[in-house]
Amino acid sequence: MKTKKLYFGTNLKMYKTIRMTVDYLQQLEELTRDISRDEIELFVLPSYTSLESAVKSTDNHVVRLGAQNMNWEDEGQFTGDISPVMLKELNLDLVMIGHSERRHVFRETDTEENQKVKAALKHGFTALLCVGETAEDKAYGVSAEVLRTQLKIGFSGVEREKIPSLRVAYEPVWSIGVNGTPATADYAEKMHKEIKSVLAEIFGEDGRTIPVLYGGSVNPGNTCQLITRKYVDGLYVGRAAWEASAFDRLIRESMEAYKNQASK
Ligand code: PGA
After folding, report:
1. pLDDT tens across 42-69, in order?
2. DSSP states of the chain as a string?
3. Domains and CATH numbers, the chain
4. Whose alpha carbon is nearest atom 4 of ligand 1?
5. Residue of 167, 237, 243 with the most ligand 1 atoms within 8 Å of its CB, for mutation
C-alpha cells in the first residue's frame, strides 16, 4: 500500500490564555520537531487573542497556525467578528469554517459557511470545512444526505484549482466534546468514504485527494483504529490534544500504527 501524508490538528476552542497558548505551542514544536513534515501536517487553531503571540513564537513550518473562524467580508458592520484581511495581517494562511459549535451554538448556515470558504480562498487561505450530522440526523438515517448537503453548499462555486487549499474535517455532532461518544472506526470509515465520493462528484476524481480528517472524541484508545482506515487521512483532536506531550504521543502512536498496517 502506498503511504500517504497524515494530518493532525487541534482546535483550542475557547481555552487557554495567551501565555498558556504560547507555552503549549513551544512545547509541541520542541517535542515534534524531529518528525518529518513530509510525513505529517500538524496544525493548531488558538483563540483570536492568542494568535499574534502564537505567530511570533512558533515556527509555522513545524506547527501550522490557523484561526477558528472568520467573517466573509473584508470589513464592515459585523460587531465582534474578525475579517480575512485582519487574519492575513498576522500572516496566517489557514482558517477553519463551520465547526459544529459555530453551526449549532451560533446557528451558522451552510450558505454562510460557503461565503466564508470562498472568502478564505480569495485571500489565499487553506480552508478547513467541518461537516457532520447530528444524532437526530443519524437516527433518521439521513447522515449521508446531510453530509452531502453541507459539502455541496459549502464548496459551491469553488474552482477545481483550489483543491490543494481545501481540507475537510468530519465531526459527527454527537461525538464531540465531554458528552460525546466517539464514532466507531467502521462508522467513521463509512462516512469518510461517502465524503470522498461527494468530493469526487463536486470536483472530479481529483476531489478525492482533499484530506479528510476525523474528529470527535479522538483519544489515545481509538487513534490507531481510526488512522489505519483507508479513507481517514488524519485526526482532528480536541481535549486529548491540549497537553503538548499527550498530543505528541497520540501523533507518534498513530504514525506507527499507520506505518505498520501500510507495510503489511
Ligand atoms: P473533542 O473535540 O475531541 O474534545 O471531542 C473535537 C472538536 O470539537 O473538534
Report:
1. 999 999 999 999 999 999 999 999 999 9
2. -----EEEEEE-TT---HHHHHHHHHHHHHHHTTS-TTTEEEEEE--HHHHHHHHHHS-TTTSEE-BS---SSSSSS-TT---HHHHHHTT--EEEE--HHHHHTS---HHHHHHHHHHHHHTT-EEEEEE---HHHHHTT-HHHHHHHHHHHHTTT--GGGGGGEEEEE--GGGSSTT--PPPHHHHHHHHHHHHHHHHHHH-GGGGGS-EEEESS--TTTHHHHHTSTT--EEEESGGGSSHHHHHHHHHHHHHHHHHHHT-
3. 6-262 (3.20.20.70)
4. 238
5. 237
